[in-house]
Design a protein that fits this description.
10 strands, TIM Barrel, five-stranded mixed β-sheet, alpha/beta
């Protein structure tokens, strides 16, 4: 290129190669997923099935966020690494009725969480190596924190989830986006998958760090930029999710004697 002509264009094929290279330099993450290991839900797919699907779909980072438990099966972490996928130790913890996603956390730390002040102390102790997301904050049931309480506890969160369950006028993510903008928090798109086919279409992308570790992923989430992929639910997916929430999953839990336990938080906009 002629240095005296700063607006001279590169050949078209070079521009296409640059775009392809730029796309390869971004990675796909899903940081809110459940599997049959979950102690609160009765699901029908394993962590290894999740890994196979994630590899086929080109994901680089996953967080299996069991309810009130850290997924810590060493053989699954090893298998993920062999497939080029980073598993981040994580959990979805219910604190005083509100769900919190914690990334890069261990079981001992989760066991100590009873109140949001406990979470504040853990965040102060861990500094920027811990990352917390408030999931589905404006949905009616299943541990959604709601707008009023989120404002009270906003200092406990690094990010706000962009929930996968939305279609047309039904989109409780809109107040979540307003809250994120108001407090300068990023949105994180996730699948919150409870069925294997629900994984893959809703995710966050970020520039690939030089070394792929839990710490570098957390740093990248803080630094940005982030790309969000969360298409509206199809009619089939929308109806299927409602069927799973209200019919299929309650029947499974009754059959296995788990009672009501945790409920899902996808179905209705939060009133508070």
């Amino acid at each position: 290129m002629n240095p005296s002509n700063p607006i001279e264009r590169e050949p078209q094929h070079d521009q296409e190669q640059d775009r392809d290279r730029a796309d390869r330099d971004w990675i796909k993450l899903d940081l809110h997923i459940h599997t049959l290991d979950d102690p609160r839900d009765i699901l029908d797919y394993s962590a290894h099935q999740l890994l196979e699907r994630a590899k086929a779909l080109g994901f680089a980072v996953l967080a299996i966020t069991l309810h009130d438990a850290v997924f810590d099966r060493a053989e699954v972490f090893a298998d993920a690494a062999s497939m080029g996928i980073l598993l981040v130790p994580a959990a979805e913890v219910r604190i005083l009725g509100a769900d919190v996603i914690l990334l890069n956390v261990d079981a001992e730390e989760v066991a100590q969480l009873r109140t949001f002040d406990d979470l504040r102390r853990l965040r102060a102790h861990r500094g920027e190596s811990l990352y917390t997301i408030v999931p589905h904050p404006f949905y009616l049931t299943g541990g959604s924190i709601g707008g009023k309480r989120l404002m009270q506890e906003i200092d406990c969160f690094d990010a706000i989830e962009l929930c996968h369950f939305h279609r047309g006028l039904f989109d409780p993510n809109r107040p979540a986006a307003r809250m994120a903008a108001k407090f300068g928090k990023p949105l994180i798109a996730t699948s919150d998958a409870h069925r294997l086919h629900a994984f893959g279409s809703h995710y966050t992308s970020m520039p690939r760090p030089e070394e792929l570790t839990a710490e570098s992923v957390v740093a990248g989430l803080r630094r940005g930029p982030l790309r969000l992929t969360s298409p509206p639910c199809s009619v089939i997916d929308f109806v299927g999710a409602l069927y799973f929430i209200f019919v299929e999953h309650p029947i499974r839990k009754k059959r296995f004697g788990l009672g009501h336990g945790h409920t899902h938080a996808w179905q209705l906009p939060f009133a508070g």
